[in-house]
Amino acid sequence: MLLEFENIAKVKKAAIEMTDITVITGVNNSGKSTVGKLVYALSAGIALYQGNYLFSLKYTLIMEELENLERWVDSETFPAVNALRRELQTVLYRMQRKANELEQREVFAEDAYLAEKIAQLLNMLQKKMATYLKWSNRPQLAAIIKTIQQQQRRDFLDQKVTAALFDRLLRQEFSNYLISDVSFAKSAVLSIKEENNDQLLLNYKNNRLDEYQCLFQLSQPYQEAIYLDDAFLLENLSSSIEEKVFGAAPSEKLQLVSEAPHRRRLLEQIKHRKPEEKYLRDKRIKAIFAEILSGGLMLKHGSYYFFQKNAAKGIPFDALSSGMKTFAVLQLIIENGLVMDSDYLILEEPEVHLHPQWQVKLAELIVYLSTVYSTKVLVTSHSPYFIEALSIYSAKQKQPTRIKFYNAQLDKKELGTSTIVDVTDQLETIYAEMYRSLIYLEELRAELD
């Protein structure tokens, strides 16, 4: 996949080829994390779009209005309204179970069928209201009918509706700072192109998405991405989606769950999957985890505990060292199949809590992951040990792992902006930037001498 963007967050321009492993480097506050956020949000949007989420959202909203309608119609009309609501419920359940298996023509057929059934019910209600002028609750009934008709007119595959979904996901990942103040008055563009010529294009003008200048051309199914940027993730189970959706309407629940920020989404995915041996079979990967951890995480009484091999008592996750947490969470998302079932694994500075010795081990693990699974790995880093280890282990494979290195370089003329450039054949550029501080300290040491 080729990811290209201009004037997104603080990055003026970038063209990034997503290979087996893609590494983004750069100083602090240079826009490194922009790439991971974009890949996650776009992958989430594509997965929802292809999983018929917009269809489900449309008819969940209509189902809520039908439930509301049941409270206001007379006893003679109630069975017809109730029957249609239940039928909608059945269709939505079936669509959810077969989300990624249904062909588009099947979805269109369901949409046409439901539209006809809803139109028949609304026509019957309107005729009854016209006949019985003194029918009670007329204002309430008229308002509900109008709302349902408005929802019916929404084409769930309309370009504006689809574009709005991607815009919501992107702005959420960037805390509504997708377009920076520096780029506010400029045009911003964001595109992805696959090897099979599938592509997605989003255009922004004056910080607003131009729905008519967007393109969604996706011929094959894609899976979402995992975005891991917090080794302490499993300490925050209380921020799960269940608390957010308690008491919410079905459509709100659907939207909160489906369009959740990356950390909350990952927490829910972890909690609803069980580790299985079939997902972790590679001897090299198992050997690294055995050397570092010699155990694994288990969910007990609503919290995660680390159980060392043959130990009867577990250690609370928050009592583990930061380095152990990094490897333990990675092992968990491999064991429960999340890595295998994702197109991208995004790791934000995963080496940050690790001694150089474990940084090298982590790099080795990532290279093995990219060869064993079809998942592509996107990594941001500012560690020379980690970057060099990724480069060496990738080259050591029998079939060399495709790896690309990029550097986010601050713009000296336009403060607060950067450009991401390909430095795959110029790794010394990265190292020179990283060793600058060490050279400075050596100069200070020389002054003392």
TrEMBL record:
UniProt GO MF annotations: ATP binding; ATP hydrolysis activity
Gene3D superfamilies attached to this UniProt entry: P-loop containing nucleotide triphosphate hydrolases (3.40.50.300)
Pfam families: AAA_21
InterPro entries: ATPase_AAA_core (IPR003959), Bact_Antivir_Def_Nuclease (IPR051396), P-loop_NTPase (IPR027417)
Domain (ATPase AAA-type core) ranges: 269-388
SUPFAM superfamilies recorded: P-loop containing nucleoside triphosphate hydrolases
Protein name, UniProt field: ATPase AAA-type core domain-containing protein
